[in-house]
Automatic annotation (TrEMBL):
<dbReference type="GO" id="GO:0000209">
    <property type="term" value="P:protein polyubiquitination"/>
</dbReference>
<dbReference type="InterPro" id="IPR011042">
    <property type="entry name" value="6-blade_b-propeller_TolB-like"/>
</dbReference>
<dbReference type="GO" id="GO:0043161">
    <property type="term" value="P:proteasome-mediated ubiquitin-dependent protein catabolic process"/>
</dbReference>
<dbReference type="GO" id="GO:0061630">
    <property type="term" value="F:ubiquitin protein ligase activity"/>
</dbReference>
<protein>
    <submittedName>
        <fullName>Uncharacterized protein</fullName>
    </submittedName>
</protein>
<dbReference type="GO" id="GO:0008270">
    <property type="term" value="F:zinc ion binding"/>
</dbReference>
<dbReference type="InterPro" id="IPR050952">
    <property type="entry name" value="TRIM-NHL_E3_ligases"/>
</dbReference>
Length: 364
């Protein structure tokens, strides 16, 4: 290539270099020049802090490249001085955030189901249970029936009850159980047909009910305090503390993943925690919580209680040593009754306003 032609191409490249954006690659002019002079058309190095090229005169540049037999570009990597923590293999597996012992959640209202919009006479619902598909089945004490809502909060059906039911709990996605306070028994129902499957006598008046394990339920009773009943209707041995004997009051309860039982004592303004053997772990009291009623646990096995007299929802750490008001009258909470945390849907459902509506909150 003649010297004059080379100088012309160099001028073209100088012109092109002024048109390059900061985020583009540009080949060193001197390396191309040396390659052309020596007929060794291999680019050994790129001296640039850019990654691409933007050219206004593409025709001139393409003409130059067509004269090259080969161009080799060695990509380089800029090293930033950033301290990156070394992770163990276990830490490299990202897990969804779950609320743990020290995590106080935030709640966001998703939906209110107001019964006056469904029935002008206003139902009275204290207790309910939720399912993985978002379905809610509740006990309407005023009209003596079971009411079913879909995930949009629309009333699907109501079924006349055979007696005065009180507590209700989901056993599986297809079966639920209720306590019959008139006949001292537990009734087990098929969710789809609403047909009675089993009738279990408890001998004494019972109120609260919760699933204890895959094949058993726990029931709050007036005299014996707590009874655990298996799928055949037989009692499972459980050493209930004397504190729960002969209370003669409504006993609401819930069970966590470790088979610990938490009970709300409305008259005593307290929450008690029992381990799987029936040993008393702690008794919780606070000026923030008055008239504790519905009780449930979240994914971290922390406790959530409805304060029917304090008009709030109180979060209690699983060891009973810390509490916080999550919802108050400022959030529209007034005389809440039943409460349930659905772990599959990550929602907190509250029977609000003296049983006249159900409020559904996202658990953040």
């Amino acid at each position: 290539m003649h010297e004059t032609e080379l100088l012309k191409h160099k001028e073209d490249l100088d012109h092109i270099s002024t048109k390059c954006s900061e985020d583009k690659i540009f080949l060193s002019i001197f390396e191309i020049e040396n390659a052309l002079r020596n007929q060794d058309l291999v680019i050994k190095h790129i001296e640039s802090n850019c990654v691409d090229i933007r050219i206004s005169d593409e025709v001139a540049f393409e003409s130059l490249l067509h004269q090259l037999k080969e161009v080799k570009i060695n990509l380089f990597q800029t090293t930033l001085n950033i301290d990156i923590p070394q992770l163990t293999p276990a830490q490299l597996i990202l897990q969804p955030k779950l609320h743990g012992i020290h995590d106080v959640p935030r709640l966001h209202l998703r939906m209110d189901i107001a019964f006056q919009e469904i029935d002008p006479q206003d139902g009275l619902i204290r207790n309910f249970t939720t399912f993985q598909n978002g379905q809610i089945i509740a006990v309407d004490e005023k009209h003596d029936c079971l009411v079913e809502f879909n995930k949009e909060g629309i009333l699907e059906r109501n079924v006349k009850m055979q007696s005065k039911y009180f507590g209700i709990t989901k056993i599986t996605q297809d079966i639920f159980a209720v306590t019959d306070s008139e006949n001292d028994s537990v009734e087990i129902y098929d969710k789809h047909t609403m047909n009675l499957i089993k009738h279990v006598y408890t001998v004494e008046k019972c109120s609260g009910i919760a699933k204890y394990s895959d094949n058993s339920i726990v029931v709050g009773c007036n005299s014996t305090g707590i009874r655990i009943i298996d799928s055949t209707g037989n009692n499972i041995a459980y050493n209930c503390p004397n504190k729960l004997m002969q209370l003669n009051q409504t006993l609401l309860l819930t069970v966590d993943d470790e088979c610990r039982i938490f009970c709300s004592l409305t008259k005593d303004n307290s929450v008690i925690a029992l381990d799987s053997t029936g040993k008393l772990m702690f008794t919780f009291r606070s000026e923030k919580l008055k008239g504790p009623y519905g009780i449930t646990v979240d994914r971290g096995n922390n406790i959530l209680v409805a304060g029917s007299d304090s008009n709030n929802i109180v979060w209690i750490r699983r060891d009973g040593k810390k509490c916080k008001e999550l919802l108050t009258t400022r959030d529209g909470i007034w005389c809440p009754y039943g409460i349930e945390f659905n772990k599959q849907l990550n929602i907190l459902v509250i029977c609000n306003c003296r049983g006249s509506k159900i409020s559904i909150y996202e658990y953040l």
